[in-house]
Design a protein that fits this description.
By secondary structure, this protein is of the alpha+beta class. Strand 1, helix 1 and strand 2 form a beta-alpha-beta unit. Helix 4 packs parallel to helix 6. The protein is globular. This is Glutathione S-transferase family protein.
């Protein structure tokens, strides 16, 4: 049986669980992460040298990096979640790469900085949040008039984006209105599979 090693509160773990729930694939999840003090053991580091989560174990196959895990699971368990041609696949995977290349830095800054008093935030915080909102505006514009990010169906794009963008929309920070992105996330979070992947 597939095992997912990682705490359920991690956005990167949640995206993997979301895919598994959507695909109806049986899996087991085990708590791993810094708060459990078990990602720097020799055993874990032999599987994942980054000491981060998630790590996926499928028989003799061990995979780390959440988007790589998503691609593997789509290839082996849920081909309906990606494109059937290389060209269609680019429409899906560009948003996975955009998440890492354009959104992630601002997301991490907001995740840390939103917990601090304004006077305690680093000088670069305002610029980081401005850039985050600019990247989110690209997402908001793209999803206007669409139900999903690619191919008119739920794909890896939506699965990868949802746990992170959901947090970005709900940070206690002033931001421009993003009605299209908010509506998309409302649709995603209403799915029983997303709830199962992110709650409890």
């Amino acid at each position: 049986m597939i095992k997912v090693l990682g705490r359920k509160t991690s956005g990167n773990v949640q995206k993997v669980l979301f895919l598994l729930e959507e695909a109806g694939v049986a899996y087991e999840r085990e708590d791993y992460g810094r708060l459990f003090e078990n990602t720097k053991t020799d055993e874990y580091l032999a599987m994942n040298p980054t000491a981060k989560v998630p790590t996926l174990v499928d028989g003799d196959t061990v995979i780390w990096e959440s988007n790589t895990i998503l691609r593997y699971l789509a290839a082996t368990q849920a081909p309906q979640l990606t494109g059937t041609t290389p060209a269609d696949a680019t429409q899906v995977e560009r948003w996975m790469d955009f998440l890492l290349a354009a959104v992630n830095a601002g997301y991490l800054a907001a995740f840390k900085g939103s917990k601090l008093k304004a006077s305690e935030r680093p000088p670069e915080f305002a610029g980081q949040i401005k850039d985050l909102h600019a990247q989110m505006a690209i997402l908001d514009q793209h999803i206007a008039g669409k139900e999903f990010f690619a191919l008119d169906k739920l794909t890896l794009a939506d699965i990868a984006l949802a746990p992170v963008i959901g947090r970005c929309l709900n940070f206690p920070l002033d931001r421009p209105a993003m009605p299209n992105l908010e509506a998309w996330f409302d649709r995603i979070k209403s799915r029983a599979t997303y709830d199962a992947a992110t709650q409890g």
